[in-house]
Amino acid sequence: MLRLGFALAAVVALTAFAGPANAQSTPPPGACHFGAYRQPDGTALIIDSSDEPNLRYRRLDGVSGKLFHVGEGQYEGGVGWSVREPVAVRARFGACGEGRLTIQQGAGPEIEARRIALPTVPITFASGPERLYGELVLPKDGKPKGAVVLQYGSGRESAVYNNYLQHLLPLKGVAVFVFDKRGTGRSTGGYSADFPALADDMAAAVDAVRARADVAGVPLGVMGESQGGWVAPLAAQRRAVDFVVVSYGLAISPIEEDRSEVAESVRAFGPAALSGAQALHEATTRVLLNGFRDGLPELERLKALYAGEPWIGKIGGDYTGPLVATPAAHIDKVRAAFDFPISLAYEPRPVLARLRTPSLWVLAGRDTEAPHEVTLNILRQLHDQGSPLDIAIFPQADHGMIERDRGRISPGYYDLLADWIASQRLTRAYGDAELIRRR
After folding, report:
1. Does a structural domain hold residue 18?
2. Residue 417: closest CA among 170, 194, 184, 141
3. Whole-angstrom Cα distance, residue 305 to residue 32?
4. Where is 161: in which H helix or E strand?
């Protein structure tokens, strides 16, 4: 799962204390099997990455499961989002390049599926001094209904290798351009959470896609998942596009996101815990805003003051959690983990208020990583003020639109994306989503 907060890469680095500058410049295990497969009954499966060396399957109705690697080209998993046992699904892939998958559900027959040959166009484009790599994936038959430039979330992994929507949306008639952010995959530069810089990159990606005859005359827009929800509206200010989609993103600043997560993590411990946790949040924010040059003594004082409290080990937040949990002796390693540009104080609301491009916001009703209550209030206010916003809230979804207890993506989410990208309208019901149509 992708975390919304820009600090995911830093949290990962806190565990390893080291890592490559450009993660996944080579294919992850099993990458030759990633893609869309057609089963004999006409239904489709999407195979993509999970935690290495494991894979994940997704159906178009949202049902999904993890496939655990058990041997060369062989995988198995249980029923549920990340369940391994009891084994209920077995998958066996042919050699790389064959595009053949044999899958068995429970004691049922083995079903052989074949990879769907989706036309894929590699595109390298410039953004300032950087050279960024992406791939345009097109529907197999006919002109696309729309085309979307996709901004991945906060991780350092390659979007081209790992984002499954590039295989799924073309099955519904939508072309997808997915590209490696600067400092990831096959793109140059350093890893960054500088949202204006990332928006420049996304605008350059729009230019690169717009030049393609494959998508001439169809609606072309931008989509940001998770952290990308801060970037896509900025990119739409830099280039004229037909639409903007934000999935499980926020209309508040990263600082406010961290504050909300901190508060939620200790709320059950009562008002005193909330007050102490807020003080720690303010201290960690000061440390990050000053590039670790100021505020560390106060942070250590507060950590010592609250060391015996039962809630101190529960404190969350994208940066407050890891900074509070890290001993002072390791602070230099933490500083190195956060050594990349960060738009910590970025306030998205003014950008959204000025944006006149039709926009769709898709929120997860149970989002534990990006609590959406304040964002929804802001979006409702902008909606009432005349911003061209459509809003869909999937009540059972966590971050990533995942219903973990049911082993699926919220039903209707994929149809919503495909329909709205093609028409920029909420045209029907989508699962149990609450819909707020623009005026």
Report:
1. no
2. 170
3. 53
4. helix 159-162
Which positions ≥6 away from 95 have C-beta within 8 Å? Answer: 73
Least confident of 28-32, 90-94, 122-126, 198-202: 28-32
Q: Report how far residue 331's alpha carbon sits from residue 334's, in angstroms, rounded to the nearest whole number.
A: 5
Residues 108 and 177 grouped into a single domain: no
pLDDT band at 27 (very low <50, low <70, confident <90, very high): confident
pTM check: above 0.70:
yes
Q: Containing domain of residue 281, as a range? A: 256-330
- Type of residue at 147: A
All residues at 6 or more sequence positions from 388 whose CB lies less than 8 Å from its CB, including other chains:
356, 357, 358, 359, 438
121 pairs with which residues across the strands? 136
Number of neighbours of residue 331 by Cβ within 10 angstroms: 16
pLDDT digits (tens, 9 = 90+) for 174-214: 999 999 999 999 999 999 999 999 999 999 999 999 999 99
Domain boundary among 89, 115, 141: 115
Residue 235's CATH number: 3.40.50.1820
Q: 141 lies in a domain?
A: yes
Kindly indicate the confidence band of residue 6, based on its pLDDT and cuts at 50, 70 and 90. Answer: very low
Together in a domain, 241 and 387: yes
